[in-house]
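lol forgot to send this yesterday, sorry. struct tokens for the thing we talked abt
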């Protein structure tokens, strides 16, 4: 696992966008896994800028989103369909038929979840999965105690996540209780993982993820099992890390490291 600490949200977002751009430059028809929430907003803005100013091309890209609230139709302003369209898809040249987001309004959730898993496999798997992290250590909506080999399924949100996400809704009671989410196992199958974390509200979860035991109580800790996971944080999210000096030493020494 690589840990990179940036001074602020903006440089964290730019660094994450560069990793995405590198994948697209080597594989123009890459399959990208997308996350929602406030943290990746800067990353999406930077990708839009790279598209507009440096012709970063998404015309052959396919995307799979991590999750969606159950019960919210795609046009609902708090749905993840709406979020992705507003903040990213409408600003780049991804063909609409290449965009995949779990449905929050299907009539058969188990069948839909199996279909979503099959579709990811049909496209050859996810090349790069973007992730955020909940203050309870979740990735996607894999709440504490989610199996580390879970697949896409319906999940009940934790009270902590409902509280955290209430800021986007008029009332706490409006936050959906269920979501469809890729599982931890689905996420670990992606070839590359990039997790972004910003702010002191994430410091504890980030420390547990990087330096704690691998545990279903902090599903992001499963990233320790992945062979190509990068965690990019800002200063505040890194404040709980004990080995920070070492991560900075590794990063500084990287350019001179033998390549083969
Ligand atoms: C959303 C998702 C969630 C968020 C997490 C952090 O697609 O996967 O795990 O990444 O809840 O959300 P923010 O960034 O709003 O703090």
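and heres what i got for the seq, position by position
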């Amino acid at each position: 696992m690589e840990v990179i600490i940036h001074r602020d949200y903006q440089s964290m977002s730019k660094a994450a966008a560069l990793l995405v751009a590198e994948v697209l430059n080597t594989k123009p028809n890459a399959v990208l896994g997308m996350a929602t929430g406030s943290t990746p907003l800067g990353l999406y803005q930077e990708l839009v800028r790279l598209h507009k100013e440096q012709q970063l091309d998404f015309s052959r890209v396919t995307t799979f989103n991590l999750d969606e609230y159950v019960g919210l139709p795609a046009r609902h302003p708090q749905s993840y369909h709406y979020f992705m369209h507003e903040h990213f898809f409408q600003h780049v040249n991804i063909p609409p038929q290449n965009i995949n987001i779990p449905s929050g309004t299907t009539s058969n959730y188990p069948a839909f979840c199996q279909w979503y898993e099959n579709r990811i496999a049909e496209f050859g798997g996810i090349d790069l999965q973007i992730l955020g992290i909940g203050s309870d250590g979740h990735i996607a909506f894999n709440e504490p105690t989610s199996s580390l080999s879970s697949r896409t399924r319906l999940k009940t949100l934790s009270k902590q996540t409902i509280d955290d996400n209430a800021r986007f809704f008029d009332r706490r009671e409006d936050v959906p209780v269920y979501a469809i989410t890729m599982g931890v196992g689905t996420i670990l199958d992606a070839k590359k993982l990039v997790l972004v974390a910003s702010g002191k509200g994430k410091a504890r979860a980030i420390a547990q993820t990087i330096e704690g035991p691998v545990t279903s109580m902090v599903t992001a800790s499963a990233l320790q099992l992945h062979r190509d996971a990068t965690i990019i944080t800002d200063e505040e999210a890194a404040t709980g890390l004990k080995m920070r000096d070492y991560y900075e030493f590794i990063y500084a020494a990287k350019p001179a490291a033998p390549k083969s």
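The chain has a mean pLDDT of 97. anyway ping me if u want another try
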